[in-house]
Amino acid sequence: MSERGLFGGVFARGAVVIDDAAWLRALLAVEAGLARAVERAGLAPPGSGAAVTAVAVPQNFDIAELGELAARTGNPVPALVRQLSELVGEDGKTAVHRGATSQDIIDTAVMLLADQVTGAVTAELREASQSAARLARIHRDTPMIGRTLLQQAVPVTFGLVAAGWLNGLDEAWEGLITARSRMAVQFGGAAGTLAALGDSGPEVARLLAEELGLAAPELPWHTQRLRILDVAFALARATAVAGKIARDVTLLAQTEVGEVSEADPGGSSAMPHKRNPATAVAILGSTRQVPGLLATITASAESELQRAAGAWHAEWQPLSQLFTLASSVATQIRTLLEGLVVNDTRMAANLEATKDATLAEQAATLLGGGPRARDQVGEAVASDVPLRDVLGIELDPARYLGAAGAFTDAALEAHEGGNRHG
Amino acid sequence: MSERGLFGGVFARGAVVIDDAAWLRALLAVEAGLARAVERAGLAPPGSGAAVTAVAVPQNFDIAELGELAARTGNPVPALVRQLSELVGEDGKTAVHRGATSQDIIDTAVMLLADQVTGAVTAELREASQSAARLARIHRDTPMIGRTLLQQAVPVTFGLVAAGWLNGLDEAWEGLITARSRMAVQFGGAAGTLAALGDSGPEVARLLAEELGLAAPELPWHTQRLRILDVAFALARATAVAGKIARDVTLLAQTEVGEVSEADPGGSSAMPHKRNPATAVAILGSTRQVPGLLATITASAESELQRAAGAWHAEWQPLSQLFTLASSVATQIRTLLEGLVVNDTRMAANLEATKDATLAEQAATLLGGGPRARDQVGEAVASDVPLRDVLGIELDPARYLGAAGAFTDAALEAHEGGNRHG
Amino acid sequence: MSERGLFGGVFARGAVVIDDAAWLRALLAVEAGLARAVERAGLAPPGSGAAVTAVAVPQNFDIAELGELAARTGNPVPALVRQLSELVGEDGKTAVHRGATSQDIIDTAVMLLADQVTGAVTAELREASQSAARLARIHRDTPMIGRTLLQQAVPVTFGLVAAGWLNGLDEAWEGLITARSRMAVQFGGAAGTLAALGDSGPEVARLLAEELGLAAPELPWHTQRLRILDVAFALARATAVAGKIARDVTLLAQTEVGEVSEADPGGSSAMPHKRNPATAVAILGSTRQVPGLLATITASAESELQRAAGAWHAEWQPLSQLFTLASSVATQIRTLLEGLVVNDTRMAANLEATKDATLAEQAATLLGGGPRARDQVGEAVASDVPLRDVLGIELDPARYLGAAGAFTDAALEAHEGGNRHG
Amino acid sequence: MSERGLFGGVFARGAVVIDDAAWLRALLAVEAGLARAVERAGLAPPGSGAAVTAVAVPQNFDIAELGELAARTGNPVPALVRQLSELVGEDGKTAVHRGATSQDIIDTAVMLLADQVTGAVTAELREASQSAARLARIHRDTPMIGRTLLQQAVPVTFGLVAAGWLNGLDEAWEGLITARSRMAVQFGGAAGTLAALGDSGPEVARLLAEELGLAAPELPWHTQRLRILDVAFALARATAVAGKIARDVTLLAQTEVGEVSEADPGGSSAMPHKRNPATAVAILGSTRQVPGLLATITASAESELQRAAGAWHAEWQPLSQLFTLASSVATQIRTLLEGLVVNDTRMAANLEATKDATLAEQAATLLGGGPRARDQVGEAVASDVPLRDVLGIELDPARYLGAAGAFTDAALEAHEGGNRHG
Fold first, then answer.
1. What is the pTM of this model?
2. Which of A11, A400, C145, C291 is least surrounded, with the fewest CB atoms within 10 Å of its CB?
3. What distance in Å separates residue D303's CA from the closest CA in chain B?
4. Cβ-defined contact of C316 to B7 (cutoff 8 Å)
5. Which positions ≥6 away from D44 have C-beta within 8 Å?
6. What ipTM, to 2 d.p.?
C-alpha cells in the first residue's frame, strides 16, 4: 500500500489506485495485446507477439524518464514505443505499435483502467448493499424522527432510511454493470482510418479487443467521447449515493443527535471524548471532488476533428483522480455500513425531544383532518403542553409510520429478487 | 415563441422551453393527477378529481404572486395549493394535495418536464442522425485531409467524419431512451412514509404514476437523486455529441479551410464577405454551459436526511437551464446537419496544400516500411520537393484510406439495423 | 416585483434582477452613450446623441422580436441597432452604433449590469456586517460549544462565531470594491482596431467611458476576459461567505441544537411545530449554484483570436444568473443576520450535554499537560462520570475560552477602523 | 525532475510540483516554525525550537507510513506529530505542535505552498510578458487578418494581438502580487480560541507568522476560506490568460493558416511533415482542468461551524493539482512566447486569401459610408471580382488599421511604466 501517498488513508483506500505505475501497466498491456493481435492477423512473424509481451513489463521502463520525454510529443507513448522496440528482438519489432497512434494506446489503456476500477467498485457496492439490506431488515420497525431541512418533521423508521440507501447502492451497481459492457478498444491509427494496416485494420481491431477482453466498437471513437463519459457518469452515480449516506451519517452522529456512530470512530488525543465519523468525513472529502472532475471530463468531449488539441489531454488526470476516488469511496462506504452502530435508545429519546409536537400531523388526522383539526392542533402546539394532554388523544409514533414498512420491504425485495444482483 | 426572451434565438430554439409557464403547467398537472388518484383510491368523493383538474389550469394562477409567496416557505407549492383549495368546491378540497409534501409536487413536475424535453430531444436527434447518415453515405469515398492537434495529418474521408457524428448521435439517442424509462413519480409525503394516507400510500402512488404516465418507483426517492442525475447525464451526452459536431463545423468552415458551410450562414452588414457559422456557434455557446450545470446537479445529490436544506433547491434552475439548452441544441444540430454544404473542391485542394507531405506514411509503406523507409521519407519531406518526385513513387490519397469505407459502412449499418432506431 | 418569476421568492430577492428587461436597458444605455460620445468627438451632427438617447428606451423595443431575430446573427444587437436606426431621424442615424461591433455593446452592457449588481451587493454586505458586528459585540462572552466535524469539541463563544462571519463579510466587501474599480468599457469595433473610426477610436472610447461612468481600458478586451472573471470571482467570494453563514445557521437551528433561529422561520401547515430556517435554506439553494456558474465563466476565458466562437456566448446566461443570485443572497444574508435570534440558554445546556467531557483539554491543562495528564483525563472520560468529580478539579467553559475575546475584538476593530468601511 | 511522473512532461513542467514530498516539507516547516515561536513566547525551554527544527526534516519520515496512519484521523498530521515528538528529546517535546490542531498545520502549509507557487508563477509571467512585449514592439505594424467566430473579418496587426496577450499577462501578474500579500498563517487550536495556550495564543500566532514569513491574520480563518479562494482565483486568472494565448497559437499554427509556429514543434515519426504545437497543446490540456478544480475549491468554502466535515478535506487534492498545473503552465507560456516564430509572409498571403473582400469595411468608408455605400460594396463582394477593380478605389490593409498602433503602444507603455512591473 506504500504507493498511496501522504493522503492515501483518506482518498486512496480502495483496491484500485490509478497512479503512474497503474498507467504504465495498462499502456504496456495494450502494446503487448496489439503485438499479439498483429501476429494473429498474420502481419508479423510467429512469436513476435510473445516476444513483445515478454519485454512489455514495468520493470523494463523508467517512469521518470518516460515522463521527461513526454514533453516533446505531448504524451509518454512515443518514448515507451521507442524503448519497447529497442528491447524486443529484430523479429518482434514489426509487431510493435503496428498501425497505432499514441491516442489508441492511451484511450484503450483508460478502458483497461476503467475495467479494473468498475470491477472493484461493483464488488464493494454489492457488499455495501448487503449491509444496507441487513440494517433495513433489522430496523424495519425502529421508529426515529424524520428530519426535513434539518428540522424534526414526522416519524420514519431507520429501516426506511437504510432502504433508501440500499436502493441507491443497488441502482449505482446496475449503472456500473451497464457501463462495463460499453468498454471498448480504441484503435484507429493516425487519423482513424488504420490506413497503415491496409485492409487489415478492422481485423486487427477485433483481435485486439479479444486479447484485452474489451468490446470491439463499430468504428474508432478517438473524438467521440461517450465511452469516457459513460464510465465517468456511472462512477459519479456511485459516489453520489455514497455521499448521501455519508452526509446522513455525519448528521445522525452529531453529539446532540447520537443516533448512529461508526464502528471505529476517529479520536483526538487532546479531546478524548471525541468520536469523529472519520470514514464518513473521508467519503465526503472524496465525493465532493467529483462534480468538478465531471465538469472537466464532460467539457473535454468537445474534441477537434481527428484529435483534440488539449481537450483529450485534459481528461487524463481527472479520470485518474475519479477512478482512484471512486474505488476508495466504494471501500469506505462498505466499511462504514458494515460496522454502523445504531442507537435506538437515542432514536426513541429524540422522538420525544419536542414532546409530541412532531405528531401534530397524526393528531390532526385523528381529529378528523381538514383545516379545523389543523388549527386545533396548531394552537395546542403553541401552548407548549404535550398534544396528548391538550387534545386528550393517544399519540404514538409507532402508529404513524404509514408505508415505511411496505417501502422497506419493496426495496429489500428488489434487492433480493431476480431483477437485481441475481 | 414570444416567451423565449432576448437570447431565445440563441439558447431557446427547441420545441421545449422550461420557463415559469412550463413549470406552472407541470406543477398543476401533478396536483390534478394526484387529486384523480386520490379519488380513485376512494379517499375523496367521486368527482373531486375532475373538479380539481378543472380548476388546475394556468390561467387561474398568477406566477408573480406565487413567486412572491414562495419566499416564506422556500418554494411556490404551498401558495399554489392554498389557491387551488380555494378555487375548488368544498368536495374537491379533500382531494387537493392529499398526503403530499411540496417536494413530491416539484420532483414529479421535474419528471414531467424531463419527459417533455427528452421526447423533443430524441425526435430531433433521430432526424439529425438521418442527415448524418445521408452525409456519410454520399461522401463515403470523398477524401479530405485528417487533422490531428489542428495540423494536417493523413487522409480520411468526409464520410468517415460524418459516420463518427452519426455514431455519436445514435448513442446519445439510445441513452435518452433508457433514461426515459427511469422517469418516475416522487410521492412520499412529509418525510417519505405517506403516513397521512394510512395504509393507502403505495396505492395512491401507483395510481398517480398511472395518471401521469410515469413509472412507479419502489420507494420514494426524495433524497436519493439518481433519477435526476440520469436525465441530466443523458442530456449532457446529447449536448456533448452536438458540441463535437459544432466544433468540427466551425473549424472546417474557417475561411482558410472552407470545406463545409452552413446552409444559411450569418452575415454582417459591415462585413458582407462574412459567412459566420452562426448555428454552430450558438450550439457551442449552449453546450459549453452544460459542464457547469452538471457539476451543480451532481453536487446536489448529497441530500440531507429526509429533505435537503439547499441542495434540493439548487437543482431547480440548473435543471430548467439544462432542459431548455438541450432542446435548443437538439433542434440546432438537426438544422445544422440538414443543410450542411460540403465543398469537395476545397477538400481536394487542401489535400494538396502541403504538396504530398501528408502522404509520407503512405510513401514509407510503399518503400517497405520500417525505420529505413521512414528516414528516407523524412529526408524527402525536408527537401520541400513533392515526395512523388523525390522518391519516384505514385502517391494517391484515395488509395490511402484504409478502413474508412468499412468503418463508415459499419456505422451506417448499425444506424439502420435492428439494434438502433429500429 | 412581478418580473421575478415563480422561484423569485427563493432566488431573486435582491434589489437587482438581471432579466431580459435589465439587459435591454443596459444595451440601450450603451448605444445611447456611444451616440453621445460620437457626437462629442465631432463625428456626428450636434443633437444626434440626444436624438438617439431619446429613442433608446425600452418601450420602443419588443424583447420577443429581438430574441427571434437574434437567431440569424447569434446575438440580439444587430436587430436592436436596425430598429434604433429606424427610430431616430436621419441626422441621428450617423451616430448609431458608430464604429461598434455587437460584442462592444454586449460586453459594455455586462459591465453596466455588473456595476449595478456590485453596487447593490456592497450595500447589503455593509448592513449585514453591521449586524454581524452587533452580534459579535453582544455575545463577545457568551460561551457555546465549538463543533468540529460536527462533533462537540471545546468551548468557543458565539461572539467569536459572529466575528468570523463579520470578517468574511468585510473581506467580501473589500473584494467587491476593488472589482468595481476595474469595470471598463469594451470598445474595439469589428476586430479590435476601431478602424472604422479612423484616428478617432481611442478618443471615442474615452468619451464613451465618461458617458457611462466606467473606466477606459488601455486597449479593447474583447478576447482578454479578466474583467469578466474579476467581477465573477468577487461575487463568488461574497456568496461563499454567505453560504458559510447560512450553513452554520441551519446547523445551529436544528431541533436538537436550537441555539439560533431565524426571526421569521418558515412554517408548515401540516407540521405546526416546524420552524424552518427558510432564509438560510434559500441562501444555500442559491450559493450552491455558484461553483458551476464560475466553472463556465472561467472556461469561457479561452477566447479564440478576435472573437470567440461560442465561449463568449456561453458567458451571458451564467453571468445573468450569478448576478441575480448574488444580489438575492446579499439581501437574504442581511435579512438573516438582522433578525437572528440567539438562544443562550440552549447554548449553555448544550455545553453540558456531554457532562464536562468537552472540557477534557482544560482538565489536562490543569493537571499539568503532557501525555500523563492526557491519559488520566482519557480514562476519566471513559468512566462516564463527570471529569470534575473524577479528577477533583474545577472545570468551567467560561474560563477556557483562550483568545476568543481578543479575536472578537480584533475583528470588530478592523471592521470599525480606518482600514475597513472607513 | 524524476518525481514529476509519467505525465510530468505535459502537466508538471514548472519550477514547483506539489507532490507528497512538497507537502511533507511544508508540514514540517510549519511544525518547526511553531516550535520556535512557542519557545520565543517563553512556553518551551530554550533550545526546544532548534531541537524540533533539527529533527523536522523529510528524511526522518516515511510518507507511505504517514499516509496509512492518516486513515484513522482523517489527515496525516497526528501521525507526523507523534513521530516528531518521539524524535525530539524530552525538552523539545513541550514545544511540539503546542496549542495547535491538525487544521492549523495543514492550512498554514497550504499557504507556504501557495507562496512557493505564486513566487514561481510571477517570475515566469514577468518573463513571458517581456517576450510578449518584444513581439508587440517588433510587429507593431505587421498587418494580418483579424478573425471573428473563426472567419476572416478585417485587418489587425500582430503587434495588437501580442499587446492583448501582454496586457493579460500583466494583469495576471498584478493579481498574483495582490494575492501574495494575503497569505497568512492559520492558527486557532482545537476550535479557534487557542485556549490551550491560555492568554498567549495571539502572541504565538504573531511569532509563527514571523518565523514563516507569512502575514498574521486578525483571527483564525479555519472556516472562513477566502484566503484559499484568493490564491485559487489569482492562479486561475493566470491560467486563463495562458489558455487564451495557447488557443490563439494552435489556431494560427494550423497547416492552412501557418502564421506562427513554435520554436521547437513536436514531430511524429510516422508523419515527418507534422509540426505539432506541442507546448500550446500541453498548456490547453492543463488550463482546461482549472474550471473544474475551481468549482470544487469554491464549493468547499461552505465550511461547517468550527471545522468542515468533508469540505476542508476536499480542498487538498484540487489545490495541489491547481498549484502544480499553474506553475507548469507559467513555465510553458514563457517558453512558448520566448521562441514563437512569426511568419509575416503567410500573414500577408492570408490577408489576400479572399482577394480584398475583408477590406469591404474600408471600401464602404472610402465610398462615403452609410447604407448606400455598404450596398454598393455588398454587390461588389458578391461579384467575386476584387473590390479594387469593381469599385476603382485603392484598398490597402496597412491603411485600415485604425488604432492598432496606438493600442499597442498603450499596452507597452503600461507594461514598462511605473504602474506595472516597476
1. 0.97
2. A400
3. 14
4. yes
5. D35, D38, D91, D92, D94, D95, D98
6. 0.96
